[in-house]
Amino acid sequence: MSQDMYAGFFGLARRPFTLVPDPEFLFWSAQHRRAFAVLEFGVLSRAPITLITGDVGAGKTTLLHALMGRLTGELRVGMVSNAQGDRGELLQWSMNALGMEIDRNETYVQMFRRLQDMLVADYAAGRRVVLIFDEAQNLSKKGLEELRMLTNINSNKDELLQLILVGQPELREVVLSPDMQQMAQRVAASFHLERLDAEATTQFIGHRLRTAGGTGAEISEAATGLVHEATDGIPRLINQLCDLCMLYAWSDGLKVVDEDVVLRVIEDGVFFGGGTLERKRA
């Protein structure tokens, strides 16, 4: 069976609601534009640390991929997803992301010195280094403190390494805790992504449908209202529910997803977050 499944039935070039982060499908809501502007500002202004937080599925990783697509060759960029471990392992994650070879026999001091030498060499060549940590809420306070120490590597008055930390809301809470003041003081740019409101949810759905080659009317406006209610405006859940709704409509030969289709998907229990709407209406 084709992975596009129902797409041809609706006249679409591909499924519009897949869960794989895809910058082409990025919906530029007002807050996503602001978040992206903060990311770009952080890079261009040489901010030691840029912090972006938001709920699971808010579109943070997709924003990162969009940012990386715009960065120039004047930057060496490394991205680490879901790093964990002690300080030696965290340093190895960082070095690996920046394209450096790992020598398991090296001591921590030797690894740190080699990283420092690379940063100095890049600085001399006019290249800045940006290290991105996605899912950074999984880092311990000790891990975050180690990353802060990396931003202390400098030449004259210029930082040689910039950090972008992206994670769930608890990351922001940790950074703002009293014993992390030194970390917080290094955060020069930050933004928190809120959930989409009802209007933005409708726009989000229409955008993805049109990007996939549709008209945007394949899901009715009344249906998008139910989708927002059921998902609380979390983009990843919106994608999950809409994908299932279009699957249901296709199997029933319906060209438009209406309220009845959304309710059937939720009542059948195939949408994991479906209990949200049922609880609200109970």
From TrEMBL:
<dbReference type="InterPro" id="IPR003593">
    <property type="entry name" value="AAA+_ATPase"/>
</dbReference>
<dbReference type="Pfam" id="PF13401">
    <property type="entry name" value="AAA_22"/>
</dbReference>
<dbReference type="InterPro" id="IPR049945">
    <property type="entry name" value="AAA_22"/>
</dbReference>
<dbReference type="InterPro" id="IPR027417">
    <property type="entry name" value="P-loop_NTPase"/>
</dbReference>
<protein>
    <submittedName>
        <fullName>ExeA family protein</fullName>
    </submittedName>
</protein>
<feature type="domain" description="AAA+ ATPase">
    <location>
        <begin position="46"/>
        <end position="197"/>
    </location>
</feature>
<dbReference type="InterPro" id="IPR052026">
    <property type="entry name" value="ExeA_AAA_ATPase_DNA-bind"/>
</dbReference>
